[in-house]
Amino acid sequence: MSESTPALDPVRVAADLARRVGVRATQGEPMAKHTTMRVGGPADLFVTAHNGFELRGLVRFARARGLPYLLLGRGSDLVVSDDGVRGLVIAVRAETTRIEGDRYSAEAGVPMARAATETQKAGLSGLEYGLAIPGTVGGAVWANAGAHGGETAAILESATLLLADGSEAVVGASELGFRYRHSRLKDNPSELVLGASFRLARADAATIAARLDDIRRWRREHQPLGLPSAGSVFRNPPGDSAGRIIDNLGLKGRRIGGVVVSEKHANFIVNDRQGTASDIRRLVEAVRAEVRDRLGIELALEIEFAGDWSAWTPEEPA
Ligand SMILES: Cc1cc2nc3c(=O)[nH]c(=O)nc-3n(C[C@H](O)[C@H](O)[C@H](O)COP(=O)(O)OP(=O)(O)OC[C@H]3O[C@@H](n4cnc5c(N)ncnc54)[C@H](O)[C@@H]3O)c2cc1C
N or C: which end of the chain has fewer CB within 10 A? Predict the structure, then answer.
């Protein structure tokens, strides 16, 4: 989405954005401020969509001009290049929610943790796993995010999509191509999530609150939550766990520059010494090569490398 390098006049485009969409754009915004890995260089232009109207307007603006754009939730699954992002980064902060009966509707920018606590208070069960996902509703649909026995596909009734042709459609869960950590949105980057509707089950609010406490406790014990990361780096191969495989090869503590394979959870890479996106990518490739060479297993990525990686090479600089 943001790999190509168009001739962009940021001052002119920013002025156009203000005039036509009514949104202020920032030039050179460091993406490290907007990703949980705390890495990523400058975006040519960075804008925030505070509501669905602005989100639609920004995407249509970019598409009409052939301007590359990157949709950003909370940046919790992304490693953005040190060279930054060419074109427009659109941070999705449309955060309206509604509860009607046992249905919870949320705009794409709603944090999953807020969805979990809001539905708990309303005595609705099903979104508890959201407490474990430091991303947005849009990002959770994109990834079919899941944890603690729950996943998005299991409770999603429908998602409102902005389609490639600019039209909108309410699409049922069965049409979203859900499978393990995958939805059709990963195959179609020109489709995006505007909002989602979840069908939940009535339950005792105190019982759900206790479940949320269990999830909080489990994550504190098992994940390196105090350090910047992007969650699990690799997908679990069928019938196995990427963390177990990496741990068994003794790769916990393997370091490149400022980033290291977590001692607490082998499928996490943490940025503990102001590492770079380049450090992360090199460490990811080193772990992947070692697993391939020693076990013949090809680990697939769960995180996404985003932005301009055109000048990156796997070799360390001299
Ligand atoms: C500490 C930690 C723990 C984690 N634990 C889990 C876990 O247990 N289970 C799990 O599944 N994941 C986990 N994750 C990964 C991550 O939180 C999820 O993948 C999450 O769904 C990403 O959402 P986001 O809003 O941050 O997306 P971003 O990282 O901002 O974006 C990811 C991709 O989604 C696209 N995107 C974002 N919003 C939209 C939208 N509205 N429409 C279309 N595309 C969109 C972006 O363009 C990008 O390609 C964890 C991450 C961290 C840091």
Answer: C
